[in-house]
Task: structure prediction
Amino acid sequence: DGGITQSPKYLFRKEGQNVTLSCEQNLNHDAMYWYRQDPGQGLRLIYYSQIVNDFQKGDIAEGYSVSREKKESFPLTVTSAQKNPTAFYLCASSPGTGDTYEQYFGPGTRLTVT
Amino acid sequence: AQKVTQAQTEISVVEKEDVTLDCVYETRDTTYYLFWYKQPPSGELVFLIRRNSFDEQNEISGRYSWNFQKSTSSFNFTITASQVVDSAVYFCALSDVFSGGYNKLIFGAGTRLAVHP
Result:
């Protein structure tokens, strides 16, 4: 089955620790994205990547970092510099340019920092 | 600025009622796409529909229908004969194209729909 996997589903960390969220896709999509969702709010874009070894900041990139060493993988690191890291994080991918703009989403990781 | 407004924060209906979720958008672009996603309690966003700005025909898929009106910048979603399984948060989104042609989605805040037996 093709799709996007995110692990773990729930993640708990102490304040001051960096934490890395996994995102893997086997859809052969070029573009990948990370979104953050807070209660009662829509999704906000953290980072996106168009191709391997390239990524760009989204609307709320401060306190986050990413890498794109493989087409299928786009891990997100939440650093200690992120002031309010507790949130639901969603990874997505899309085929890329052209008429296809649909994004496919993973199941999400709920991060709690105390 | 690109913006999506879902004014209804929460809607509660009884099973078999019809319900309409409103979506109003703002965009500077002449070509754009609009989307609806469903987020059930499990958390994963499920794609429901994509609509091109040049196609103003309404669309029906089973109990779901969408009304796109460019004149009022609205893309409303109606569920006919709602069921408990329709309970979820529904997001309307607007495409925004980055330089280079890759897309970004601008989401509304979502509408939480609760369907009671």
Remarks:
- Chain B is about 0% helix and 55% strand.
- Chain B touches chain A through 26 residues (CB under 8 Å).
- The longest strand of chain B covers residues 88-97.
- The mean pLDDT of chain B is 91.
